[in-house]
Amino acid sequence: MIRNDKIILRALEPADADLLYDWENQMELWAVSNTLTPFSRHQIITYINQISLDIYQTKQLRLMIDVPRAEKQESIGMIDLFDFDPYHSRGGIGVMIYKPERGKGHAREAVDLFSQYCFNHLGLHQVFCDISEDNTASIKLFESLNFKFIGRKKDWLKTPIGFKDELLYQKLAGQ
Hints:
Blueprint: E1 2-3, E2 8-11, H1 17-24, H2 27-33, H3 41-51, H4 55-58, E3 61-68, E4 73-85, E5 90-97, H5 106-120, E6 126-132, H6 136-144, E7 148-159, E8 162-172
Parallel strand pairs: 5-6
Antiparallel strand pairs: 1-2, 2-3, 3-4, 4-5, 6-8, 7-8
Protein name: GNAT family N-acetyltransferase
Organism: Marinilabilia rubra
Domain N-acetyltransferase: 7-174
């Protein structure tokens, strides 16, 4: 586990299947995750089994975000490393906090802790994130952690009401 005094990042377990099934099938999150269709329980279980493979094979890492509560840990979200490229020493970060827990600083703690893990343990030179131009909460989050705006992909995201730009943010090791 990767942890500090406020947050725990841990590997997915088979027991997480029902929670992931619920989260991944919430249509309101699909625009952020680029999902178009619902997931079956079988797909979620297969995913959990595959994600446990080595990061160098899968080129991704998904961890659950847990917070310590009075009697036990509670899962409140997920954080991902995607497009992991060990040769160029980079990877993308995505984070999702379940709605009742948003706005409490958990995403900031998770991204900060995960970024340090990527730099210090995986030896990455840079991490990046892609954010829809209208996702002001994510823009503020990543900017508060010293991610720098480095580009705009015009009309990158198709939505029911038209196309949106996607913003690219980056953080280099040591910044």
